[in-house]
Amino acid sequence: MRSADDIRRLFKNAELGIHPGADERVFEDVLKARQKMTENRPALPENMWRVIMKSPLTKLAVAAAVLIAGVIGLSLWRTTGSGIALAEVLARVEQVKAWRSTGSYTSTRQKASGKPGGFEARFTILGSQEYGFRLNGGVRDPNGGWIPLSEDYVSLQKKTFTSINTPEKKYVRVKLGDAGAQAQQKMFGPYGDPVAIIKGIMACKYENLGRSTINGVEVEGFHTTDPNCRSPLTVDLLKNQQLEVKLWVDVKTRLPVRSEGLTSGRDEGGNTISHHLVNNFEWDVPVTAADFDPPPVPDGYTVVNGLDDRDEETAIRGLKQCIELFGSYLFSAAQGEAETLLSAFQKSETPTALRLKEEVRGLTEKEKRNKLATAAWDVRRFMMFYRALFLDKKDPFYFGTFVTPKDTDKVLLRWKLSDSEYRVIFGDLHAETVSPEKLAELEAAVLDNPPGLLNEETAILGMKQCVGLVGNYLETIKYGEDAMGMLCWAYLKSETPAAKKMKELTGEQRSSSELDAEKPIFRLMWFYVRLVQDKKDPAYHGKTVTPKDADKVLMRWKVSDNEYRVIFGDLHAETVSPEKLAELEAALSK
């Protein structure tokens, strides 16, 4: 768990960035330093607030997510029949070699303090299936007009990414490996690639809105509010999040005219509404490879060179650098990069860290971050590799919280190769390919130590710890980014005696205390994972059940065909029949 100050700083930075969650799905010069934090979030514990707009690579995804607000008159929908299928539209768009569009991203926030907040940006984008992407963006100047933000170039042929950061006068050049080039396309897609936008809607439950007109063009609309739909606006730590994505298609050409997304919810700072718009499409525009080559380095700009070869070797080099620089593995591989690195660096007493601290003495906070970003380049590439695995749906998981370089037989990082194989990097950084069954055994050894520790008693201890630490049960205990985010969020706001006592500590003492406090909760989460793996039909109702609900089901799992084990809100446990369980769970909705 991050220290409260670290988390507060992260939330504050997210509020000032283009998109508090874009950090979650992009590359970073550092990584956005988040993603964001975005998935967004990070965002985002594996906290999904992946922030910092400072990272050009993060900015690429954020920026493209930011595609225009040329809101034009849209008439009311008529409920006439359609005749257009999205598959038709997809097939037509896939025939287009190059396109140009404009876009905007607007975020408004009504803070808990009552003060409004917000952000507005606009972009133009040129995309080519063959050559790559080019994106120019700016942000609204509070004093009027627009401030140039960046020019970003992705060359698929040369496998390079270049970002020209105007405010910081930084020229970043990154050489992409094969995996990096593919990941760049996937990360960019949801924000500006019309093929990716259409596929994203088709992967969700959507409906046809009928026909209307936009600027005199007859269009047909498609619409989804599917919570499983991932869009550039999805922010992983928004409470009560609601998502709406719309696409309007020209009836004659079967090509998109306008794409729009709207997300609303409540975050740590207040109620937030984000609006993402892409329109003014031009199709089959003439382009050459030269259109995606960046200009020479402007006078007065600092050049930053890097290599993005996202593979297993990259990950191992990054993990080795973690030990050299921080003395241990990072707590998280998916949090906002800048905050994760800075927190680890501030606490480190390794010879490498001490030398670097001397070098940055007297520098501004911004200069210190830039210096650290350069020194920790291999660590950042490891985090990029992890993010790429996540985006490729390779089922990655990282156990840096529990595993040390001395743990030769414990899983540090794993990802899926196929249905029958997983790749595993162990604590001593050797790697092996194992079966899913062997992986389950290895992962159990990380938290189920000594063997048998993951049991009903462990679960109840973890739930007690939740109440003691954050004052209530977590809304989810599915081990992963959502649960980790909820835990960090709850701890940040907690006023329980245990939380207050830990927040009064400093440095390594505080970090050690927080980790010790978290471990029972982690084991509760992993116990739930084991129940899922063993097909025990588990369910958890922490979102609605409190410690005062003595007769309500907090958690349950299958013992046999005619028995379920139930832990109630007051943490007593009983064995009940399926019929009784159905009766108990039916009462939850009343």
Short summary:
By secondary structure, the protein is an alpha+beta fold. The chain has helices at residues 4-16, 56-65, 86-93, 178-192, 194-202, 312-326, 337-347, 351-360, 365-375, 377-391, 436-447, 456-470, 481-493, 497-503, 507-533, 578-586, and strands at residues 98-111, 116-128, 132-140, 146-155, 160-165, 170-176, 207-214, 217-224, 239-250, 256-267, 270-283, 302-308, 397-398, 411-418, 421-426, 431-434, 539-540, 553-560, 563-568, 573-576.
Could you list some keywords that capture this structure?
590 residues, alpha+beta, 12-stranded mixed β-sheet, 4-stranded antiparallel β-sheet, 16 helices, 20 strands, 34% helix, disordered N terminus
List the helices and strands and how they pair.
Blueprint: H1 4-16, H2 56-65, H3 86-93, E1 98-111, E2 116-128, E3 132-140, E4 146-155, E5 160-165, E6 170-176, H4 178-192, H5 194-202, E7 207-214, E8 217-224, E9 239-250, E10 256-267, E11 270-283, E12 302-308, H6 312-326, H7 337-347, H8 351-360, H9 365-375, H10 377-391, E13 397-398, E14 411-418, E15 421-426, E16 431-434, H11 436-447, H12 456-470, H13 481-493, H14 497-503, H15 507-533, E17 539-540, E18 553-560, E19 563-568, E20 573-576, H16 578-586
Parallel strand pairs: 6-12
Antiparallel strand pairs: 1-2, 1-11, 2-3, 3-4, 4-5, 5-6, 7-8, 8-9, 9-10, 10-11, 13-14, 14-15, 15-16, 17-18, 18-19, 19-20
Helix pairs in contact: 2-4, 3-5, 4-5, 6-10, 12-15
